[in-house]
Amino acid sequence: MSQLNNTLLKVTQLLSDGEYHDGTSIGEALKITRAAVWKIIKKLEQYDISLSCIKGKGYRLDTPLVLLDPQKIISLVNEDRVDIEILEKIDSTNQYLKTQLNHANRIKICIAEMQTQGRGRLNRQWHSPFGKNIYLSLLYPFQKDISELAGLSLVVSLALGKTIDKVIGQKEKMGIKWPNDLIIAGQKIAGILIEIQAESNGFCQAIIGIGVNVNMSDIATEAISQPWSSLQKLTGEYYDRNPMCAELIRQLLIDLQRFALSGLSDFSSEWQQRDVLFGQAIEVTSGNHHHSGIAQGIDAQGHLLLKMADGSIKDFSAGDTTLRK
Question: Is there a catalytic annotation at residue 121?
Answer without folding.
Answer: yes
